[in-house]
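re: ur question from the group chat, yeah i did fold both. here u go
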Amino acid sequence: MINQSVLELKIKRTTQIYSSLICVIESLNIPYIQWFIFGDKPSISVEAKSLEEAYQLETMLYIIFRYALQTKIYSHILEMSKETSGTLKNSDSYKIFFSKKRIKKNLSKVVGEKNTIANLGKIYGYPECCIKKYLEDAKDTGSFEPAIRYRLQCKRLNVQDRFFVSLADQENVGALGLFIPCSPKCPEALKILKQYEKIQKAVIERTRITQKDHAR
């Protein structure tokens, strides 16, 4: 459960990191990052194409997360080769993990295990039922089949996608969304969605206030 005053304070702190307040808000206008900073999401990861880019992202985001949350943040850079990531990636890349809890020293082993996707789902704080359904659908297709299944569920149930599950092609599925739920009406997923929508509303209001102050 999110305390409204605490949420507003976190958002205010985040916007105060740099003099260019609006740019910061826009760069953080990503559902899963907002859920991590302002909600209960325990961990996130972002991708980088090179080690240099990974270090730059780690430094920048660590400052933002540490200042906004006012608590210790743990980070770890992991090389995601074909051998390490299995079906997660077709080429070498890097993942920068950020967590509110101490990241396991054997993170590379956890990610490299056969049940990599299940392990990551738990690390990211996804509901168990959604992880299970994802694994049933995914097989060797990554997020593509789960996204197709979810979008068809939305159509069949005549409900709007509120989890930001984008579907450009097989290589670009739901990159900025919350996660792919087992159903658009999953109770556990909707609890997270309710929390996120409260966060989103508060961020929009803070952006409006910031823009108004800068216009003076």
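okk and heres the other one u asked abt
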Amino acid sequence: MTDDEIRGYLGISGSRNGCTQDQYEQVKNFLRVAIQKAYHTLNTGCCLGVDELVSVYAHYTCDMRIVAFPPIKENYLSRITLDLADETHEPDDYLVRNRNIVHNSELMLFVRSFWYLVHNEICTEIWTKNKGILANR
């Protein structure tokens, strides 16, 4: 997608193990501000944990569109997020899927997965485009 096409698209990346209550509060506050700044769509990896938690909040509280980039591994898949999705991409390998989320997002929000991404080439791509925001601790 071009820069104009991704305007208003927010990507989320997080742990399948969920997040802390403090992180969740940061994410909720961030999403409330994001919708005021014209972010209308959430690109998600469609997994259990952070993806599911944030997708439910974004859909029901912020009235955001949900775009799902599901994993190949069915046991990681969030059926709830899949049901909420307004658009669903074909399941893909993690690195391909994560790269697609980044390329289809104007801004990325990281929750707990940041340290994994630091060791991944995708991280360089994200930070050089000034796309990254991290929900800490």
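fwiw on the second one: The two ends are 32 Å apart (CA to CA). DSSP finds six helices and six strands in the chain. idk if thats what u expected
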